[in-house]
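C-alpha cells please, single chain.
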Amino acid sequence: MDEPGRYHLILTAGGRPVQHGWWGSEAVARRKFTRWVGEHGAIPGARVTLVDEETGTVLTTWPEEP
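Here you go.
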C-alpha cells in the first residue's frame, strides 16, 4: 500500500473529523482545499484545514482564525 501524501486535508464539523485526503503535490492539495470549501462550507460548524505533514505546518484553514 502506498504511503499517504505529504499534504493532508481535513474536513471537520462540530469538532469531529468528517473527511480526510492526502496529496503529494501542494498545488493539487490547495485546489482540493478550495473545492472542499465550496462543497462543504454550508455544513454547520464546518472547518477545512490543510497541513504539511512533513513540517507539521498548518498551511491554511477555512474559515480563517479570528
